[in-house]
Amino acid sequence: MIQTILIVEDDKSICHFVGQALEYNGYEVVIAETARQAKAIFLSQPPVLVLLDLGLPDEDGMTLLETMKTLHPEIPVIVVSARIWEEEKVKALDMGADDYVVKPFGMSELMARVRTAIRHAYETGSGGHLRDADIFTCDGLVLDVPHHRVTLDGEEIHFTAHEFQILEQLMRNKGKVLTYAWLIRKIWGTYISTDNQILRVNMANIRKKLKENPASPRFIQTELGVGYRMIDEG
Ligand code: CA
């Protein structure tokens, strides 16, 4: 089955080189240079994924993101932005963007993000509900939800209830960045920005137990000022 990717971008040279790389990787590409075109294509031929530039000539990309996520929440959107403000990345992710890349980006990085987002969308099914898998694995790490058990390279490790829940969310969303606010809401129910500290403390404990090397993590990457991402080895 041919998978169509919608590129929403007004910069022709970016459209050209991203489009070529996607086609080389077997995707079909449709380009929209304005938000108006993007909406028309999105409705008439829903793509498998959207690459969305935030700086569009006729509408704020953030507003378009909101429209797309209202119409088709199951279609993954990767935000492509020249702006590097952390606030904006966080806002886009909290508004439902599935990932983001900052210009200039490497093609192999972009392709990996595209594959992860599409696979994740398939795994979670339409409607964006996570499949209720019970056991998650990542490299030598195994998380068994019903037995509340974690093993690393075959050795059992004890985690507190909160640490376990954080790790579970990261493993359920492997390859995807989870924002501080999203994680905190998921684990503790509400979010106040000063709560980041409690998440950081829990994360530090998790990393210590996983014997993570901060210089080159095996499992959990920090997206500075944004959140955390479980490394997707696939
Ligand atoms: Ca632009």
Describe the protein in words.
The chain is of the alpha/beta class and 234 residues long. The protein has 2 domains: 4-128, Rossmann fold (3-Layer(aba) Sandwich); 135-230, Winged helix-like DNA-binding domain superfamily/Winged helix DNA-binding domain (Arc Repressor Mutant, subunit A). 41% of the residues lie in helices and 21% in strands. It is built from 8 helices and 12 strands. It has helices at 12-24, 35-44, 61-71, 86-94, 107-124, 161-172, 180-188, 196-209, and strands at residues 4-8, 28-32, 49-53, 77-81, 99-102, 135-138, 141-144, 149-152, 155-157, 177-179, 220-223, 227-230. Strands 2-1-3-4-5 form a 5-stranded parallel β-sheet, with helices on both faces. β4, α4 (86-94) and β5 (99-102) form a beta-alpha-beta unit. α2 packs parallel to α3 (61-71) and α6 (161-172) packs across α8 (196-209). The longest helix is centred in the middle third of the chain and has 18 residues, at 107-124. The two termini are 21 Å apart. Residues 126-131 have low confidence and may be disordered.
